[in-house]
Fold this sequence. Notes:
With 303 residues, the chain is of the alpha+beta class. It has helices at 18-42, 45-71, 86-114, 121-142, 150-179, 184-211, 221-230, 265-279; strands at 2-7, 236-244, 250-257, 283-289.
Amino acid sequence: MSSNHVHDHSHHAPASFNRAFAIGMVLNLLFVAVEAFYGWRINSLALLADAGHNLSDVASLGLAWAGALAARWRPNARYSYGWKRASILAAFVNAVLLLVAMGSLVWEALHRMASPQVVDGVTVMAVASVGILVNTATALLFMRGGEHDLNIRGAFVHMAADALVSLGVVVAGALYLWQGWSWIDPVMSLLIAAVIIVGTWGLFRQSLHLLFDGVPDHIPLADVHAYLSSLPEVTEVSDLHVWAMGTTQVALTAHLVTPQGHPGDAFLAEINHQLHDRFEITHVTVQVLTASTGPLCQPQPAH
């Protein structure tokens, strides 16, 4: 029995988004101050709700930033994987905070619908228009990193959704000026909450899935098993496990039975290369056996 660890660290490290996080947090803090002031002055729930949401954006960006920084800390004797999972935790907490904030918004909007109040539609439109610019600019800072990093994608989706929310507030102000509908402010707040909840649910579900060592959505486990089983030297694949170490790195462990003896380092190097290129698995540990010992862990089919 021999154990071989094939760890690929040649993949490109995620780009630093320190500047993007810093700029995004400053822009949103400034906008929160403006939006909260005018929302309080003209008694607009839509503006106050969006200001509260944008304040949560500052906290969320800070959380995502902290997660990204922690994920880059090197492994040590106490944390042999480092703190890579911090980025998953940051994405999860980010989603939870946003869902809780939207629950509070829905509650307040329902109360406001019972007693609609007059608002200054022009001010609402002007302030929300600034919000469109701020949120769009912030979202663009994270657009290029969202494909391969759940934490960065969370920041991008969050800010892109906010740009749409601000657009909704502009529409509410315009409808109020046009038709004089005093109920449009809380109704738009409910629509805002619905858009954000729908957009956040995927982030919440995926981050929770990864926290419990679920197989990342982009990796078909059956295809990974089929590839390993198709190798000429391999007669059995068992104890195959795939999980996310963080939001940018995926790990795999497996037992491969090769009755003809150990196939050599070139065999293992090719496995590492194929798993990296075909499935984006970056941290591979394979144990080669010359006789089957039976699976120690037998996964059940997903329902």
